[in-house]
Amino acid sequence: MNKRYEALLALKTQEESAKDIIDRIEKLFKSEGAEVEQVQRLERRELSYEHDHQKSAYFVNIIFSAEPALIDKLRSKLKLDDDVAFQNYLVLSKKAAAPAA
């Protein structure tokens, strides 16, 4: 059964090349069987602490539906991607039904 997830990715890139990297990551999600609902391109932000010699990162939020087993697969593949500084996944609650009148 598919669940809805939110992936927060921090990219080691400049804003100019972020679009190509985001498109590549979105294709990866889709090729692995995830149904991407929304891609939110956030902005480059300073990190509160230096991570892998990075002082800032470009953040992307991806909302998608997938089988729970896919999360480990995505995590493993993106861990090997040099453009991804770090990643975090959250399970989203089901969409709330409209209240009855």
TrEMBL record:
Gene Ontology CC terms, in alphabetical order: ribonucleoprotein complex; ribosome
Pfam families named among the record's database cross-references: Ribosomal_S6
Keywords: Ribonucleoprotein, Ribosomal protein, RNA-binding, rRNA-binding
Residues making up the signal peptide according to the UniProt record: none
Record flagged with keyword RNA-binding: yes
GO terms, molecular function: rRNA binding; structural constituent of ribosome
InterPro entries membership: Ribosomal_bS6 (IPR000529), Ribosomal_bS6_sf (IPR035980), Ribosomal_S6_plastid/chlpt (IPR020814), Transl_elong_EF1B/ribsomal_bS6 (IPR014717)
An annotated GO BP: translation
SUPFAM superfamilies named among the record's database cross-references: Ribosomal protein S6
Keyword Hydrolase belongs to the record: no
Function comment: Binds together with bS18 to 16S ribosomal RNA.
HAMAP family the record matches: Ribosomal_bS6
Similarity comment: family membership: Belongs to the bacterial ribosomal protein bS6 family.
NCBIfam families to which the protein is assigned, alphabetical: S6 (TIGR00166)
Protein name, per record: Small ribosomal subunit protein bS6
Classification of source organism: Bacteria, Pseudomonadati, Verrucomicrobiota, Terrimicrobiia, Terrimicrobiales
Gene symbol of the encoding locus: rpsF
